[in-house]
Amino acid sequence: MAGVKTWLDSWPVYRQLTGADPFGRGSAARSKATDATVSRTATADKVVKSVCPYCAVGCAQNVYVKDEKIVQIEGDPNSPINRGRLCPKGSASKQLVTSPSRVTTVRYRRPYGTEWEDLDLDTAMEMIADRVLAAREKGWQVEDGPADNRRRVNRTMGIASLGGATLDNEENYLMKKLYSALGAIQIENQARI
Ligand code: SF4
């Protein structure tokens, strides 16, 4: 008889008709698999605070880490900006760091090249620095204005900066400092708010 009772208890309609959940919205509708499921947020070793990198709203995130690997990213309920919510893009941001298709090396296609090459980071940084310095020098202006009214400007027109909407306050501050120090005057951001 106990076997029959166990079998009946595995049947949601039976549980709904005989149990404490007559509308079938709770325990009557739950399967054993659901009961055995443990969320990744419950088994994480630690939670790291972060900010969604995708847009200028800047939703706060809780990044759940287990064995030094990201296992889940959710909205931070303590943030006054998103109060625990993330849009579909932000909800998928775990894939940004864990997806096997993520590019983790510097990719370079040289002039007239037909294939992409991998570069080590130090080489790529040296190449970028060389190009920045060359463009700065090539576009350097000491003076500007009509011949009878020259003004000292000491600036470069060879470099411009267009920031992305995901840049935060601190990053924009540093970029403005860097480009102004290089003598650039065309420094812009793409913030949406
Ligand atoms: S979760 Fe969505 S709205 Fe929030 S910062 Fe990310 S992309 Fe923007």
Describe this structure in words.
By secondary structure, the chain is of the alpha+beta class. Helix content is 34%, strand content 25%. The mean pLDDT is 92. It folds into four domains: 2-36, no CATH class; 46-98, N-terminal domain of TfIIb (Single Sheet); 104-131, no CATH class; 139-193, no CATH class. It has a three-stranded antiparallel β-sheet with strand order 1-2-3. A three-stranded mixed β-sheet has the order 6-7-8. The structure holds iron/sulfur cluster. Residues 52, 54-55, 57-59, 82, 86-87, 89-90 line the site of iron/sulfur cluster. Iron/sulfur cluster binds next to helix 5.
Question: How would you sum up this structure in a few lines?
Answer:
With 193 residues, the protein is α+β, with helices and mostly antiparallel strands. The protein has eight helices and eight strands; from the N terminus they run H-H-H-H-E-E-E-H-H-E-E-H-E-E-H-E. The longest helix is centred in the C-terminal third of the chain and has 18 residues.
Q: What labels describe this entry?
A:
3-stranded antiparallel β-sheet, 8 helices, single chain, 8 strands, N-terminal domain of TfIIb, 193 residues, 34% helix, binds iron/sulfur cluster, alpha+beta, 4 domains
